TrEMBL record:
The chain crosses the membrane at residues 21-43, 107-131, 138-157, 199-220, 232-251, 263-284, 291-309, 345-365, 372-392, 398-417, 424-443. The keyword Membrane applies. It comes from the Bacteria. Keywords: Membrane, Transmembrane, Transmembrane helix. The keyword Transmembrane applies. This is AcrB/AcrD/AcrF family protein. Signal peptide: none annotated. It comes from Sphingomonas morindae.
Length: 597
C-alpha cells in the first residue's frame, strides 16, 4: 500500500496538468448531468446569457464584428450593448465546430453547454499553479475540491452560463498565478495579459486589476530587485490593452464612455502602465523614495483621468439618470451589498470567504514567525479585498469565494499533515471532514436552525407563485404560442425582453442594460403610470403587443410601488378598450394583448 501511495504521489506531482484535466472532466461531467434537461430546453436563465446567445447568433448571421448593437431591442435604433466580441469567440467556435455533425439546434445546445466549462479549466490550472508554488506540490487536489465547494463561483461555470463572468473569474485566478510566479518577466507579462483581457470583456474586475498593479508597484517599492517584474508588467499592459481595444472595442465603445474599455480607460491604463515601466528604470535606492515615486505615478494617472474625462469623475461608471437608478437599478439584487440579502442567501455565500479570513490570520501568525510570508501577501490581500467588496455589491461574492480557496487549502493541508502516520482510512475520513468543515459546506444546514428563523413545517409546501412564474414563463413551451403570432414589437417587462428575442421572432422595447436608460424608463413609467400614459408610451414605440407574466419578480415591484398604476390595474383583471386580448393555450402563464390600430 505504501508503495502504491508513493507511486500515486509521484504521478500527481509529475503529471499535475493531466491530473487537473482529468479532475475538470469529472467536474464537467457532473455539471452536465445536473443541467442535462435544462440544456435540452435551452433554459438560459439569466438575461445576460440570453443576450449573449442572440449576439453570437446575429454575428454568425452576418452582423459586423464591431457592431454589437441589439437591433431587436428598442427598434429601429437598437440597444447599445457595452460588451465586446471576446467572449463570443469560443461560443461561436463551438457552434461552427458542431453544426456539420449535429445540425443547428443541437450545435447551439452543445455550445451553450460546453462554453462555460472552458474558463473553469483555465481557473483550475491557475489555481493548481498557485497552490503548488505557495503550499506544496501535492496540495492542489485539496484546492480543486474546495473550489467545487465555492457555490457562487461554480455557478458562473455551470452549463448555459455563457455570460462573461466565468471568463473574468478565470482571468482573476490567472492574475493571482502571475503574482505568485517567481520568474519576474513571466510574472509581469501574465498579470498584464490577464488584466487587459479582463478589461476587454468588461469593467467588473477593474478594482482587482488596479489592486494587482498596485501589488506589483509596491513590491518594487519594497525591493528594488522587482524592477524587472514591474517593467515587464508596464510594457505588456500598455501594449496588450491597446491591442485589446483595437481588436475588440465595438463601434459604440470608441466614444469616451466610462463603463467599458473605451478611450477613457485606454488612455488611463496605458498612461499608468508606462509610468510604472518608466519608474523601473529609475535608480532609486531607498524604500521611502521608491514608495513616493509610486504614489506620484498614481497621482499623475489619477489627475489625468480627472482632467481628461471629467464626465467619469464622481459618478457611477454606468452614468445613468438618478430616476433610472431609483426605479430600476436599485432593484437589481447583485448590485446590493451582502447585508441587504436574506440570511439564508448571505450566510452560506459568505461562509467560505469568512473561513478564508480566519485561515489567513492563522497563516499570518504561522508564516510570519518563519519569515515565509512574502509570497503569500498578494493572495491574502486579494482575498481580503474581495471579501470587503461584497459589502459594497453582492456580485463580487464569486470572486471572494474563489480567492479564499488557496488560503483555506493551506489550512486543510496543514491539518491533514498533522494526522501523521495514522491508518489510511483514518486519514481519509479525517481529511474529508476537515475539507467539509473548512469549505463552509455545513453553513446551509446550520443556518436553517439558527434562532429567529421559522422551522420548516411537515408536509408539502405550497409553491411560491413568484418562483413558479419565474420558472415557467421563460420556457420554450410557454413562449412557443407567442412566437407563432405575426412578427411585431412587444412591450413587456424589462427582464423579459432578452428571453423573448432569444426564443421568438419578435422584437422587444427594453432589456436590463444601463446604456439604454431611456427605454428602461419608458417601461417603468408605463407600468407604474396611468393607462393613458402607458398607451402613449406604447404608441411612441410602435408596439404591436403587450405581454406580461403575472407574479414574475419584476411585476411584484410594480404592484408594490405603484398599487394604483397601469400594471396593478391590469393584474387586477381590468382591461382598457385599446387592448384586444389574445387567447393562449390553457395553463399558459403569459397574458398577451394586441394594441388596437
Amino acid at each position: 500500500m505504501a508503495r502504491t501511495l508513493a507511486a500515486l504521489a509521484d504521478w500527481l506531482d509529475r503529471r499535475w496538468r493531466l491530473a487537473v484535466l482529468l479532475f475538470w472532466i469529472g467536474a464537467a461531467a457532473v455539471l452536465l448531468w445536473q443541467k442535462w434537461a435544462a440544456i435540452h430546453w435551452l433554459a438560459l436563465g439569466d438575461t445576460d446569457d440570453n443576450i449573449r446567445f442572440v449576439q453570437v447568433r446575429d454575428w454568425l448571421g452576418g452582423q459586423g464584428w464591431y457592431d454589437l448593437r441589439q437591433y431587436r431591442l428598442n427598434p429601429p435604433q437598437g440597444f447599445n450593448i457595452h460588451w465586446s466580441r471576446l467572449v463570443d469567440l469560443p461560443i461561436a467556435g463551438l457552434v461552427l465546430l458542431a453544426r456539420p455533425l449535429l445540425g443547428t439546434l443541437d450545435a447551439w445546445r452543445f455550445a451553450v453547454a460546453v462554453a462555460p466549462l472552458l474558463p473553469m479549466l483555465v481557473a483550475m490550472l491557475a489555481l493548481a499553479l498557485v497552490v503548488r508554488r505557495l503550499i506544496a506540490p501535492l496540495a492542489y487536489p485539496v484546492a480543486l475540491v474546495l473550489l467545487c465547494c465555492a457555490g457562487s463561483a461554480m455557478l458562473m461555470w455551470s452549463p448555459l452560463r455563457i455570460d462573461h463572468h466565468g471568463w473574468q473569474l478565470a482571468l482573476l485566478m490567472v492574475t493571482l498565478a502571475g503574482l505568485s510566479d517567481p520568474r519576474p518577466v513571466r510574472a509581469g507579462v501574465l498579470v498584464a495579459l490577464s488584466s487587459s483581457l479582463s478589461l476587454a470583456i468588461g469593467l467588473e474586475m477593474l478594482p482587482y486589476i488596479v489592486f494587482a498593479g498596485a501589488a506589483i508597484a509596491l513590491r518594487w517599492a519594497w525591493e528594488a530587485e522587482a524592477a524587472l517584474r514591474m517593467r515587464a508588467y508596464g510594457l505588456a499592459l500598455a501594449g496588450s490593452t491597446g491591442a485589446a481595444f483595437l481588436a475588440f472595442a465595438s463601434t459604440d465603445n470608441w466614444a469616451p464612455r466610462c463603463d467599458a474599455l473605451t478611450p477613457v480607460w485606454l488612455v488611463t491604463v496605458v498612461l499608468a502602465a508606462l509610468l510604472l515601466a518608466g519608474l523601473s528604470l529609475v535608480p532609486a535606492r531607498g524604500r521611502v523614495t521608491r514608495l513616493l515615486l509610486v504614489c506620484a505615478a498614481g497621482l499623475v494617472a489619477l489627475l489625468a483621468y480627472r482632467l481628461l474625462f471629467p464626465q467619469c469623475w464622481g459618478h457611477r461608471l454606468e452614468n445613468i439618470p438618478p430616476e433610472a437608478e431609483r426605479l430600476w437599478l436599485s432593484h437589481v439584487r447583485e448590485a446590493r451589498p451582502i447585508t441587504a440579502h436574506p440570511r439564508d442567501v448571505a450566510l452560506p455565500a459568505a461562509a467560505l470567504p469568512a473561513i478564508g479570513l480566519a485561515c489567513g490570520l492563522a497563516l499570518l501568525w504561522s508564516a510570519g514567525r518563519r519569515r515565509l510570508l512574502g509570497p503569500w501577501l498578494p493572495g491574502l490581500a486579494f482575498g481580503l479585498f474581495a471579501f470587503a467588496l461584497t459589502f459594497w455589491q453582492f456580485r463580487t461574492i464569486a470572486s471572494a469565494q474563489m480567492l479564499a480557496v488557496p488560503v483555506v487549502a493551506w489550512a486543510c493541508w496543514t491539518l491533514i499533515l498533522r494526522l501523521g502516520d495514522r491508518p489510511l482510512w483514518v486519514r481519509g475520513v479525517a481529511g474529508a471532514a476537515i475539507v467539509a468543515l473548512l469549505s463552509g459546506g455545513l453553513m446551509t444546514p446550520l443556518e436553517a436552525w439558527l434562532p429567529g428563523k421559522a422551522r420548516p413545517r411537515a408536509g408539502k409546501a405550497r409553491p411560491d407563485p413568484v418562483r413558479r412564474a419565474n420558472r415557467r414563463c421563460p420556457t420554450i413551451p410557454a413562449l412557443r404560442p407567442i412566437g407563432r403570432l405575426p412578427k411585431g414589437v412587444v412591450f413587456t417587462f424589462v427582464d423579459a425582453g432578452p428571453r423573448l428575442i432569444a426564443l421568438t421572432h419578435h422584437s422587444a422595447v427594453a432589456g436590463p442594460y444601463h446604456r439604454n436608460a431611456g427605454a428602461i424608463l419608458d417601461v417603468e413609467h408605463a407600468m407604474r403610470g396611468t393607462p393613458e400614459q402607458a398607451h402613449a408610451i406604447m404608441l411612441a414605440h410602435r408596439a404591436d403587443y403587450l405581454l406580461v407574466c403575472p407574479n414574475m419578480s419584476e411585476s411584484t415591484i410594480y404592484r408594490s410601488e405603484a398599487p394604483g398604476g397601469f400594471y396593478a390595474k391590469l393584474a387586477g383583471g381590468w382591461t382598457p378598450a385599446w387592448l384586444i386580448p389574445i387567447a393562449l393555450p390553457p395553463g399558459n402563464p403569459w397574458r398577451i394583448w394586441r394594441l388596437r390600430p
